[in-house]
Write a structure and sequence with these properties.
99 residues, 2 domains, two-stranded antiparallel ribbon, 4 helices, 7 strands
Length: 99
């Protein structure tokens, strides 16, 4: 099936994204070629974190991400141990879904 890359666009950077299509394209391609393990912030124009690309995953991988704290974070045993806020955000989200 190939590979997939999750992309987050910072709405605060919408003007810079609209005015710099070549930088956006380079950032997206750079993110798509990032086989990890680190995620990447990409600056566009005068905005230092206009685009966040999560490292590329194989389409068959099962990956869970959490939007919280103004960012997107992969939920893994390592990140759950490292970030108290992530554990609490995940608990709240699961409570809302009534799982």
């Amino acid at each position: 099936m190939g590979f997939l890359t999750v992309v987050v666009l910072n709405n605060d950077a919408s003007h810079e994204i609209a005015e710099n299509p070549q930088e956006v394209t380079r950032a997206l391609v750079d993110g798509m070629q990032n086989l990890g393990p680190e995620d990447k912030d990409h600056g566009v124009g005068n905005h230092s974190n206009a685009i966040l690309t999560m490292h590329t995953r194989h389409a068959d991988d099962e990956t869970l991400y959490m939007f919280a704290g103004g960012t997107l974070t992969e939920v893994t045993p390592k990140t759950l141990a490292k970030y108290d806020w992530l554990r609490e955000a995940l608990k709240r989200a699961l409570k809302r879904t009534r799982i």
